[in-house]
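dumping these here so i dont lose them again. two proteins, back to back, each one seq then structure tokens. dont judge the mess
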Amino acid sequence: MAQLLRNFRGLRTFSLPISRHFSAAKETEIELEYLKGDKEGIAVVALNRPSAKNAFSQSLVNKLIDSVDALWHDKNCRVVVLRSLVPGAFCTGADLKERSKMTPEEVVRFVKKLRGMLTQIEQLPMPVIAAVDGFALGGGLEMALACDIRCASADAKMGLVETRLAIIPGAGGTQRLPRTVSPSLAKELIFTAKVFNGTEAKEMGICTHTVPQNDTKDAAYQRALQIATEILPNGPVGVRMAKKAINNGIQVDINTGFAIEEACYAQVMPTTDRLEGLKAFAEKRKPVYKGE
């Protein structure tokens, strides 16, 4: 991946200060943090493999799988924010140094595991927001595409660049990108291995929010936190069922989609949260939802 990055000499070089979270001496690879105070209910999954710009190694993927599994079983988590602690890089895709030492069979197994991990992120019951600062190339962009909402700094650099290496996106990119933009545009981006910035990503509909980079180089993360905070007051069961209805519905015909919506609506009817919402409205106060 280092060689791939050198191919982008025409792009503006990132020169970012080291975050207070960043430690060159120790790589935690993945940090899972549960926020407190007025942000309680938000979990932050942070990639922290600075030596390889968060490239997907077997170790990093295994730790991501563990973190996602923990979130799956956490009923108190209402929103997940996926970010990087490495300046200048969200995720640069596969660890090509590690991959060059693999047999073809090992590569196939690894890509299958990576694809499954991204599907698990996509299918998390709560909303997942990607905060893209810096490079999100290949598998890095595929990971962002697996999230529900994407925020990017204006100078982030994104692209499904696999054809430059004579391969194709293998962790869901050929399927998720055409569902995010038009199939024709997705083909152009993949065939040409185009690298685009955050502003262009917003114009194409790949990102829902693009923000100017700030002095601390975490503008996308701050925007993602703002969105997560706006989701928090709403009924968690309702939010989860809305996500399920949308994710499952867009894969089928509209009449089947209506049936999925009806089934998801039926699951919110017997909840105490629904009754609390009605009661709070009548009493002109903010509802206190418990996810029950």
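---- next one ----
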Amino acid sequence: MWLIFLLPLFICVQSFNTQPGLRKTDQSILDDSTLDTFTLIRKYGYPCEIHRVYTEDKYILEMHRIPHGIDESRDQHRPVVFLQHGLLSSSAEWVLMRPGNGLAYILADAGYDVWMGNARGNTYSRNHATLKPTQSAFWQFSWHEIGYYDLPAMIDYVIKETGVAKVHYIGFSQGTTTFWVMASTRPEYNSKIAEMHALAPIAFISHIRSPLIKAIGPFTNSLERVLKLLGANEFLPNGKINQLAGQSYCIEEVITQALCKNLLFLICGFNNDQLNTTMLPVVLGHTPAGASTKQIIHFGQLYNSNEFLQFNHGWLKNRRVYGSKRPPPYNLSAITTPVFLHYADNDWLSTPTDVERLRKELPAVVGKYRVPLKKFNHLDFVFANDAKNLIYNRLLKIMTQFGNKTKL
């Protein structure tokens, strides 16, 4: 949910001129903003594979795999970890911060076979057996379908391809929401996950502190009509305008970089110390990566209802789909995979109050960890300068304890 309101930035740079006399940002940084995930990983010497899978409802998803670290031989007995990105993002999220900082690289260097999923509709998963992204029918999904169809298809593929009994699961933001959907509506998948790590978990969001999201939440029932003005059924599709914004308005020497930082902070919380401003062009070159309008609406419905409910289609369609006027709540008690919640005080989207409510209502929670930095915010879980020391090293220790459960 973290780049929803970058739109003003994208609009304001449709006509621009690079400021003269400014020192150029490292060309390598600007190059990274234009490379896809596969090429970006290979650029830094890591092996990378592309895998594609069909969902039950015929979406074609692309996954990216780092089977091992640099100069290491493929080991068939490596533990497998599956990473699922947040809203408006993609697999690139895990590698943008480069080796030594990006979580996917850290896991590969630690001996893991790393698989990164891509949800339907994003940059890498814009194909369907019969539909095209230009058709409205392609975009008729929320994050419910991502959890119900996409995650099971990708996890089944990974298990079949690697031969392991279970995989480690790490999700960020919406990547946690979709896990709750899968594990509650298709409980047989609990047995395929060794343990689940929820970075900035999203389920109950009634205490969101982001003023922009709070302002738009009450209008989500009519938001779809508004969003059509921004790109029909897709919200903030990525494209050249994002790269231009990142390369020309967010490089270190440009005075407008403060605008980029403030827009991000206004959504997610303020922590100037942990934001690597040099990498802003790279971040904006890869995000937003595509999402349906219904994903945005569904999150708005959670905020309005103060509950964790399935999509509200309106009472007439609800009766047809659910057999009731109101959408049913997700049955969190059906989740049996051991869950570790990782949260932060300054997260304006996954607030400590809402995370505590999730802990109380999700029986499978076996650990809850507060990042020991008062200013740590939502974006910091994937982009912070000190994420490795503050949270990733802890993840690795916990995953080691569950290592034996992933083997046949």
